[in-house]
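Running this now, will post back.
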Amino acid sequence: MQLPKVGLVICNSGASNSGTSTGMAAMKVVEKLGDVVGICSLPALVNEVSTQTALVKKIPHLIVIDGCRNECARKILKRLGIGYEAYINLEYDLGIRKLGPFTTLEYSEDDVERISSAITKRIEKALGNHK
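Update: finished.
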């Protein structure tokens, strides 16, 4: 296992359109950029799994992506005392509205692409190769 240069901490419950979209967008980014980026386990952080928490703290650049105004991923990191470099909130930053519980499949490919693009731009900025 190689530690990625950039870790994505995403709220990816899949219980709503925004959770599904963040997860799909993060997967697209990992497929595109490869080993430079990795997705961190939010459930492991919530449950304070020590090995996972220690690994996340070692990742040089963390980007947090939340799907809505509840800011779950951000709040979890704050509670654990883990800092991060960049934050994306679908509602605040991209104008993508959470439709509520049980809207798992009510997302658009356009939204997934916009989210993926926003994540990629933050990664490029973090690594110093922004355009």
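The first strand starts at residue 6 and ends at 10. More later if anyone needs it.
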